[in-house]
Amino acid sequence: MSASLVERSTSFGEQLRAWGLNPTTLVFSIVIALALYLTYQRATAISVSNIPGPEPESFLLGNLPEIFQSQVGVPDFKYQQLYGDVVRIKGPFGEDRLMISDPKALQYIFHTAGYGFLKWPERTEISRILMGRGLLWADGETHRRQRKVMLPGFGAPESKAFVPIFRRVGTELTAQWSDILASSPDQTTILNVASWLSRATMDSIGEAAFDYQFGALSNTDNEFMKAYFGLMSDTLGSPPRSAIFMQTILPVWMLQLMSKYSRARNLVHARHTARLANAVTKQLVESKAEALLQGKGNKDILSLLVKANASEQSSTRLTEEEMLAQMRTILLAGHETSATSLCWVLLELARHPDVQDKLRKEIRETEMSIHARGDSDFSASDLDNMPYLSAVIKESMRFHPAVYQNYRLAAHDDVLPLSKPINTTDGKVITKLPIPKGMKIILSIAAYNRNTEIFGEDAHIFNPERWFRDSGEKRGPTLGVHGNLLTFAGGVRTCIGWRFALYEMLALTVEIINNFELFPTPDIDRLRREACLVMLPTLEGEQLKGENLPLRFPEYENPANMLSHCHLASRSFRRFRYPVIPHACPAFLCYATRSYATRLSSNTRPSNQGSHKSGSLWSEESWDQVFLDLDKSLPPPRASGPLFSQPRRQTMTERESKVLTGMLDMIFDSKEAREDLGDGNSEMPGGIVRGQVDDLFSRLRRFSRRPRREVDSSTRMFDKKKEEMSFCTTDQQLLEWALREVFDESKRYEEAARKAMVEASGTGEKTELPHLQSPIYSQLIAHLMRTFRVHFRDPNLALFIFNHAQKLSTVSYVFGCSTAAYNELVETRWLAFNDIQGVLAAIEEMTLNGVPFDSRTRKVVDTIRRELGSREILTGSDEVVQSESWEILTKIEKLLAPKLHTRRKNFLQWKAEVVGVDDNETFDDWAFDDLEKLTVGGSGRLN
């Protein structure tokens, strides 16, 4: 074999020489030609390497680990802040990619270009594994064909028709929560609302989309639900670097082989779920097709889809595989995104009790109007006409987009328009961005939804009030279908079920907030925005357990042994149209008490003949038994749980109050009682059981919640700023936030004040001038210093914050470097650096500038004295070092010593001169009390 190869190569070389060509020269020429060709290609190819962007973590994976392993939005917001709305990122082996949140570029990609930007191949494969070859997998003409068949099931009228189903599921959900609370010993509980909402949305999808009862809420052992719960977090959550590398580098056919045969836990879970889903959906499709042939088609989405598919031409119909894939897509994408979005809505309502109370007030007022017109429940139009509810849902979808990124691939060379010019790294300014064919782009929905030019300067704060002012709906190019948000994407790839999801969220939010008050729990501090294709709530260190959002439900004020009766009575009491929750309405408590007393009695209300038998509802014995049971069951008075929220000033609406009065009159009014018993009867003077009812409520009143203090606007403002700080996971992020949100704001305040002063001096009118600084500026400076020192253990940045505030301007120094900030400076100097000389300089600075000391300043000095006394912090045993430290401490204590009143100072001087230095307490008391007699004309000069 080798001999033949040698002979062939020799003959080939001889042939080249016969043609007058040298083999070595030929090879060399080919190499030069290839090099020239590659150089020409690189010189003429479109490049984005001059776009600003972060340095890659590694050459092998670029910036992808940070993007795919971080919490949702953390890299997006950082890149947006540092480099702008168009960022060059690195893929594997130094490949250039883009992350885009520029509004005009996004509008071009989503709307103008249409299918000119394809999905990443590796992302389509993930969609195929989870949902099959359905709408989220398809692209181009296949996507257009599938979407055309599915559209009839997701129109506006069809989505509105499902509202009663959503309301029914919401009622079942709240009833189960009420049962849990009823069985809780202290009438309070913590629930993983993520799990419950996932089950509720699964039941909604089953009934509305398939006319099928999954029973996820009622059957916790549901195998189908178990398979779907945690699927996203298990399959896609926190991918290791090896998974990122394989998804990015391997060709699609190899990924398909891995998904089919790999024994990895996440892929086994995905295959098991796919088998279950295919079995259920195949049976459903067959039954709907048979019903259609018999003319018995329903109005659920699957029936409409089967009907639409049957009416299409054979070339445009969905295949059986595609039909099953659409069902799996609706199941997973439909229930997971809605449940996740609802989780973030409830989280923000728990974090913002003022928003929760305002929303509940709107819900109750709408409910009253519904009952006034004779209807029994919320309709789609009622949900549409609740502006604050709409604002809360929009703001939550903006702040926490369930789908946070889209992934696109340029199908050909293109040019992206830009909202703002880009300063390239080579010094150029460009207003349009050319991109080459094959360029991979990450469309950052999370970053766009917090674009300050679209949604205001406070875009990084949860604030539903923004939707009542000039918001993003009216700014910038048109992008999203709802509120100009990109949460539902846009253009040809707009989420086909966005109306369905929206009405589902509206209906369930109304039912939950109308019946419960939500509070955060300590575990919320460990909450992660997990990137799992959708943004799931998980707890730090417990990501493998799946989505988890623990919220606390409030303690009921009702007696423990009455709560179950209250819950049972709620069914019949619904005709009065009060909230189900007993503590939300005193009238319901009264009704439940009456029902409870009825259970103790074997008789009913006395007849008109005036019979008043012992043991009846109205007898002393029955009511004494009620009071006895109440006294035995009531827990000792105690404060309510942590005060996370402001109190509701009124828990009853005007109509509820009127019905309560009418009910009390109907049951207990003396006039009606006398009419029933007859004029001659004198057994009930002063009204039937009026005294007993007064006694009952006076006893219950002892266990009401204590009034909570009001929170002023500056406190709320400071709380919002602290909440923003909590989202910064590194010291660098917090520093960037401080420079942007604190110090830049300080400059704006000062500039506005100076401008107003100039305008006021020009007009000569007396006008109220704006603040020179934010009212919480000094609090922010101190809190930032403490956060850097204690939380991030970076005392140098704490000192930087103080120095920056000091040097920014005179106004910043005066207003920002307050006692609290100086206390942080003193603690940092001593606790972090053992710098007693720095402590002295800070104390002298406070004295010179008239900044008052407080107890915290003196505590630091006491700490210094203790540690100096132990000699543990000294750098050595040198007596000179020790003596110098004690001298400095003495100076500090003298500066901190309280200043003597002039009268006292003069008295001590006189005592030293006249009486002597010996202490004489009796003389001191007498002399100092009569010091006025010893002074001349109150001048302070001793006689």
From TrEMBL:
<dbReference type="GO" id="GO:0005506">
    <property type="term" value="F:iron ion binding"/>
</dbReference>
<dbReference type="InterPro" id="IPR036396">
    <property type="entry name" value="Cyt_P450_sf"/>
</dbReference>
<dbReference type="GO" id="GO:0016020">
    <property type="term" value="C:membrane"/>
</dbReference>
<dbReference type="InterPro" id="IPR050121">
    <property type="entry name" value="Cytochrome_P450_monoxygenase"/>
</dbReference>
<keyword id="KW-0560">Oxidoreductase</keyword>
<feature type="domain" description="Mtf2-like C-terminal">
    <location>
        <begin position="716"/>
        <end position="894"/>
    </location>
</feature>
<feature type="transmembrane region" description="Helical">
    <location>
        <begin position="21"/>
        <end position="40"/>
    </location>
</feature>
<comment type="similarity">
    <text>Belongs to the cytochrome P450 family.</text>
</comment>
<dbReference type="GO" id="GO:0005739">
    <property type="term" value="C:mitochondrion"/>
</dbReference>
<dbReference type="InterPro" id="IPR002401">
    <property type="entry name" value="Cyt_P450_E_grp-I"/>
</dbReference>
<feature type="binding site" description="axial binding residue">
    <location>
        <position position="495"/>
    </location>
    <ligand>
        <name>heme</name>
    </ligand>
</feature>
<keyword id="KW-0349">Heme</keyword>
<dbReference type="Pfam" id="PF00067">
    <property type="entry name" value="p450"/>
</dbReference>
<dbReference type="GO" id="GO:0020037">
    <property type="term" value="F:heme binding"/>
</dbReference>
<keyword id="KW-0812">Transmembrane</keyword>
<keyword id="KW-0479">Metal-binding</keyword>
<dbReference type="InterPro" id="IPR043837">
    <property type="entry name" value="Mtf2-like_C"/>
</dbReference>
<dbReference type="Pfam" id="PF19189">
    <property type="entry name" value="Mtf2"/>
</dbReference>
<dbReference type="GO" id="GO:0016705">
    <property type="term" value="F:oxidoreductase activity, acting on paired donors, with incorporation or reduction of molecular oxygen"/>
</dbReference>
<keyword id="KW-0472">Membrane</keyword>
<keyword id="KW-0408">Iron</keyword>
<protein>
    <recommendedName>
        <fullName>Mtf2-like C-terminal domain-containing protein</fullName>
    </recommendedName>
</protein>
<keyword id="KW-1133">Transmembrane helix</keyword>
<keyword id="KW-0503">Monooxygenase</keyword>
<dbReference type="InterPro" id="IPR001128">
    <property type="entry name" value="Cyt_P450"/>
</dbReference>
<dbReference type="GO" id="GO:0004497">
    <property type="term" value="F:monooxygenase activity"/>
</dbReference>
<feature type="region of interest" description="Disordered">
    <location>
        <begin position="634"/>
        <end position="654"/>
    </location>
</feature>
<comment type="pathway">
    <text>Secondary metabolite biosynthesis; terpenoid biosynthesis.</text>
</comment>
